[in-house]
Amino acid sequence: MSELAISIFTGTLIAATPLLLAALGELVVEKSGVLNLGIEGMMLIGAAAGFLVAVQGGGLLPAFAVAALAGAVAAALFGVLTLLFLTNQYAAGLALAIFGSGVSATLGVGFGSQPIEALAPLNLGPLADLPLLGPLLFRFDIMVYLGLALVPVTWWWLNRSRAGLVLRVVGEAPGNAHALGYNVLRIRFLAILWGGALAGLAGGYLSLAYTAIWVENMTAGRGWIALSLVVFATWRPFRVLAGAVLFGGVTILQLHGQILGLPVPSEALSAAPYVATILVLVVISQNRARMALDVPLSLGKPFRARD
Amino acid sequence: MTINRRTLLQGTAALAGTLALPRLASAEGVLKIGQVNASPAADIGWAKQHALGIEAIKAEFGDRVEVTVVDNTFLPQDAERVFREMAATGHGLIFGTSFSLGAPMQKVAPRFPDVAWEHCSGIVHLDNLATFEAKYYEGMYVAGVAAGHMTKTGKLGFIGGFPIPDIVGPGNAFLLGAQSVNPEITCNAVFLNSWFDPGKEKEAASALIAQGADVLLGMTDTGVAVQTAQEKGVFSVGYASDLISFGPDSQLTSVVLDWSKDYVGAARAVLDGTWETESAWDGLAAGVVTMAPFHEAIPAEVRAELEALVVAVGSGEVQPYAGPISDNAGNEIVPAGEVLSDGDVRGIDWLTAGMIGTLG
ABC transporter substrate-binding protein PnrA-like domain: from which residue to which, for each copy (chain B) (predicted)? Predict the structure, then answer.
């Protein structure tokens, strides 16, 4: 039984990792006042590009680097459109999602039947052999730890560092930031690149570590889930973590429920992760006054410097 | 929503393609053949096996045929337009390769009585609309026998896309095969409610293994179940394509679909002017269902037994759905001495005794 519990716990963290990476990236983007709806597309481009590198023998770490880079390039496209040409952010983001799914499908043609060696767990030496704690905590691949580490780092950077403060000002009152001499567009563009890189990494995690294969549209909606996690978590990194873990956990639990033969239709069980995540995040976001403080005030609004 | 929008866009682009193509070349006496697929072109799985059917036609008839393929035609309204365009631009034989394409085909076919229509996994026939389908359950039964010999825990794992007869039936046959080796064997069933979600499939496979299943069967369109079994050191059975590259040590066999007989047969009949609407439903005997090579991990005498079983199931000597069979709630489905009728096989909506799971 304890092995089953360990499998559920570790499976949960692994399932949460791509959601966490993508959502933490988007959180920074939105804190800068930009809404990028194209996470799904950037994830797919990252997944395909990373897989291409790995399948051609380029090695896994370069593959992850290329996945992040590809996500950032896709995001740059969005950045140029929305920041420079003031395209509607909603439309450009949706276009990016569709564009990414097409581009990744084209990139991946012919590679669907070729498996690769998946990213191996990090070798943590004696730690991995600890009773109980070893299999529970110390046998993940490096990306799981990276995702978890990014939670406090993102929180600290946003709330305690000067650069994070500037980013938040840009997201709340871009006019003021501009008047103070900050380059609003440059800061937003960098935030968009960061979001794209993390989305690409999240996609790469799916095709290089989670399931070491390429399948068209393999993200299967995780980009959209990451997007809604940011909103439901009221733009707070630790709540994003809670939401991602909850979603991953209920997904795994519902599968175990099906396997145990719970007398509930599989369709209802499949919907359980969505329902549970929405419910919990809505309940913990009850305080409207606090929530109003968390919403980036200029979210989705274009900024044009008047000179 | 977005997926719909995307497929719509792709469907429109694909439609533009069909409009342009036939005008390029149409020599005298050449049969134009169309194929419409609901899913994207893929390198393995259902779509790949249908692409191989078209390849077989090309190899057989060469210059006498000209082929147009349109993928990603998931929405019925797209499909209807694509089918109408194909028929209107001189295609004499048109294949639709998904159950979901049935409604648009039934709508368009009567308006083009001179065109031969072939619908894979369809159920409705018209004067010029034929159907073809494979007896997956025959292969799954044989694979189940292999699984029955190789399981140590006595627990099998089954991952299905959706709880529909084409998935539930073969899953039942898989367990019935295993139970012919050892009646105590059970099978845990998971339905993903999705065809394309490798991540969720991985989670399902891991969960099944964590609960003790040591032979996995994945009836989705990816190699994930076979790959996960390989990673965790248990066995697996593939479906649609030979997935051995995903699990060189794990795949006991795969139930491979080979539609080339249906494709070549239909093309030849149309070329000869002898095409008639019929319902083809073949399995191991006709080679529409074939077994990937049995893995060497299976003892040699069992492998010989399995080879013999392929012949026996193909000839009808061994009937996978021979009674007594009851469902997993204890209701009798097939009394002893009887065999489930073909119609009932195609409409299976029950899980056989020993299956742990629900159909909803």
Answer: 33-292
Name all contacts of A139-147 with Cβ < 8 Å and 24+ positions apart: A139/A10, A140/A10, A140/A13, A140/A14, A141/A209, A143/A17, A143/A21, A143/A64, A143/A119, A143/A201, A143/A205, A143/A209, A144/A13, A144/A14, A144/A17, A146/A21, A147/A16, A147/A17, A147/A20, A147/A21, A147/A24
State how far the Cα of A185 lies from the Cα of A176, in Å rounded to an integer.
13
Which residues of A fall within a CB distance of 8 Å from B356?
Answer: 259-261
**pLDDT category, B125, cuts 50, 70, 90?**
confident
User: Which residue in A220, A252, A266 is closest to B197 by CB distance?
Assistant: A220
Prediction ipTM score:
0.86
- B242-259 pLDDT per residue, tens: 999 999 999 999 999 999
Contacts of B197 in chain A (CB under 8 A): 218, 220
Query: So what's the pLDDT on residue B360?
Result: 62
A115 at B interface, C-beta within 8 A: yes
Are B193 and A266 in contact by the 8 Å Cβ rule? The answer is yes
Q: Do A255 and B207 touch (CB under 8 A)?
A: yes
Tell me how far CA of residue A97 lies from CA of A71, A91, A202, in angstroms: 12, 10, 15
Residue B52 touches chain A, beta carbons under 8 Å:
no
User: Could you tell me the pLDDT band of residue B27, with boundaries at 50, 70 and 90?
Assistant: very low
A contacts of B208 (beta carbons < 8 Å)? 259
Q: Which candidate in A39, A216, A251, A270 is best for mutational testing of the B interface (most B CBs within 10 A)? A: A216
Structural domains of chain A ordered from first start:
2-294 (1.10.3470)
**Model pLDDT, residue B28:** 54
A240: left (phi over 0), alpha (psi -120 to 50) or beta: alpha
Cross-chain residue pair A11–B10, CB shorter than 8 Å? no
Ordered mean pLDDT values, 10 residues apiece, chain A (307 residues) = 84 95 97 96 97 93 97 97 94 95 90 85 85 86 96 97 96 93 95 98 96 89 93 91 93 89 82 85 76 84 76
Mark yes or no for CB contact A261/B358 under 8 Å.
yes
pLDDT at B40 (0 to 100): 78
